[in-house]
Design a protein that fits this description.
Chain A: It comes from Actinoplanes cyaneus. The complex is a heterodimer. By secondary structure, chain A is an alpha/beta fold. In chain A, about 45% of the residues lie in helices and about 20% in strands. In chain A, strand 9, helix 7 and strand 10 form a beta-alpha-beta unit. Chain A is globular. In chain B, a hairpin with a 5-residue loop joins strand 1 and strand 2. The complex binds zinc ion (2 copies).
């Protein structure tokens, strides 16, 4: 047995989970561990997840303390990560992190993967947070981003945001998301309605699922059309949206699926008429950018996409989808109607989009190139 | 046969399922030969008692930890001292935008 790990991957995120972030962690960590003969994965636990696992040369440790206040929890996590990394201090060559809470205790070479910025995202879930508090969080981010040997971003929108926060431009690397091609033969899910639109993802306000529900209410004349919401989060968090669907009289035309395993989502996507990414135009999506894995996965499944016209989605979809102004249910409904009426044109889009998708192995190659650069310094 | 009930896997988790040869004296779960740690505990119970990981690294760490605790190198190094009780109050469980968003914790923050 060797002295200690040479690499660590740290994320203030539950892993594994049904969310897109977990797929991302899976592939990025795999690349890190493969080239370092294993490593240490520090993530959040909870539920049935074991606090400790050893899988070959990989050790997985999960933070399981129950700390009700989020900032206290982040602080406790940071201290816990420091403790986890300490025994490997002499051997660690590289730490890969996803957030400031994970980056703070890292002392050696660090790759910071910025998929989101807490100073932008936190006010959505925590509306009482004061601007002065956000400034302090922004300072933490700046400190971590400046120290990073490399910063990996999934879109140039967030690339700009990290450079604004002090990351050296020549250390910022764009690595888009990946999605593995979906085989055409994937069987139709048994519970699938005949013809359906699909939304895949989480349900925070910035996702715009309410806009989609309102748009769908305007398509009541298409009586054979359903909407499937594949939520990556639990039924509890869908309650406000389900209430909205009821008020709109959508009834069982909307089907709700929760925390489906990733491989099942692909089948739901593949058999949908259209995939909708109705993101809103708030600062979260405009300034920080986001990580529209759902768009990549729709493209990989060959499913036509209709999405809000935001730079971050244009960057992914190019001209191979249909764009509508964000937050406008009537326009979204009209676009859906047109796409359903001209399936040939729509599928031509989808075919082109499919060919543009990076596979996860492409993504891993790009990450490997970043590691090479960091390690040759 | 009693199957080993240790959770295994990286992205897709499942139970080990190999024939158990012992039980963990601390938590009682059934363990296969592969999942019995040196002290006889299951991996999780062993980890909770600091009995896993690389022995050399762990020993070196204990030596360093002693030295560093006095040097404050591993105390939280002041990372969060800038936050006062006013900053923290905004993140109390009751202060969230919608309780429905909080039921599965902090990992609801940065996702797609
Ligand atoms: Zn045990
Ligand atoms: Zn076993």
């Amino acid at each position: 047995m060797s002295e200690g790990h040479r690499a660590a991957y740290v994320a203030f995120d539950r892993f594994p989970s049904a969310k897109g972030s977990a797929v991302h962690i899976r592939h990025m960590a795999a690349e890190l561990f493969e080239r370092h003969g294993g490593g240490l994965l520090c993530v959040l636990g909870g539920g049935d997840l074991p606090a400790y696992q050893r899988e070959g040369d990989v050790e997985i440790v999960r933070f399981t303390d129950v700390v009700p206040n989020l900032l206290d929890r982040a602080q406790a996590f940071t201290a816990w990560v420091a403790e986890q990394l300490a025994p490997h201090r002499d051997t660690l060559e590289l730490c890969h992190v996803r957030d400031p809470w994970s980056a703070l205790p890292v002392t050696g070479p660090m790759v910071y993967e910025a998929n989101g910025l807490p100073s932008v995202e936190l006010p959505y879930a925590w509306p009482m947070v004061a601007p002065s508090t956000l400034d302090k969080i922004r300072e933490l981010e700046q400190d971590c981003l400046r120290r990073a040997a490399a910063v990996v971003v999934p879109s140039s929108v967030i690339g700009k945001a990290v450079i604004d926060r002090g990351a050296a431009p020549d250390r910022v690397h764009l690595i888009p998301n990946g999605a593995d091609p979906v085989p055409a033969s994937l069987p139709r899910p048994e519970a699938a309605p005949g013809r359906y639109l699909i939304y895949v993802g989480a349900l925070q306000p910035w996702q715009g699922v309410d806009v989609l529900l309102r748009a769908f209410a305007r398509l009541a004349d298409l009586t054979d059309l359903h909407l499937v919401v594949c939520s990556s989060v639990s039924p509890n968090r869908a309650r406000p949206l389900r209430r909205l669907a009821e008020r709109l009289g959508l009834g069982d035309r909307v089907r709700w699926q929760y925390t489906l395993p990733h491989e099942q989502v692909a089948a739901w996507l593949a058999h949908a008429e259209l995939s909708v990414a109705p993101l809103t135009a708030g600062p979260r999506n405009l300034e920080q950018g986001c990580n529209p894995i759902k768009v990549w996965e729709s493209m990989a499944a060959g499913t036509p996409v209709v999405a809000s016209d935001l730079p971050v989605i244009r960057e992914v979809l190019g001209d191979d989808g249909r764009f509508v102004p964000p937050d406008r249910p009537a326009e979204l409904a009209r676009a859906i109607r047109v796409m359903l009426e001209y399936p040939d044109v729509t599928h031509e889009f989808a075919g082109r989009a499919r060919r543009r998708v990076l596979t996860w192995s492409d993504v891993r190659h790009r990450l490997a190139a970043v590691y090479d650069q960091v390690e040759s310094r | 046969m009693t199957p080993c009930t240790v959770t295994t896997g990286f992205f897709t988790l499942g139970k080990c399922g190999v024939m158990a040869v012992a039980g963990c004296p601390a938590c009682g779960r059934a363990l296969c030969a592969n999942h019995v740690t040196e002290g006889g505990l299951c991996p999780e119970c062993a980890a909770a008692r600091n009995q896993v990981g690389h022995p050399a690294a762990a020993a070196a760490y204990r030596r360093r930890a002693h030295r560093h605790r006095t040097a404050q190198e591993y105390s939280d190094a002041g990372w969060y001292v800038g936050f006062d009780s006013y900053d923290r109050a905004a993140f109390d469980p009751g202060a969230g935008a919608d309780q429905d968003y909080l039921d599965d914790g902090a990992d609801a923050l940065v996702d797609s």
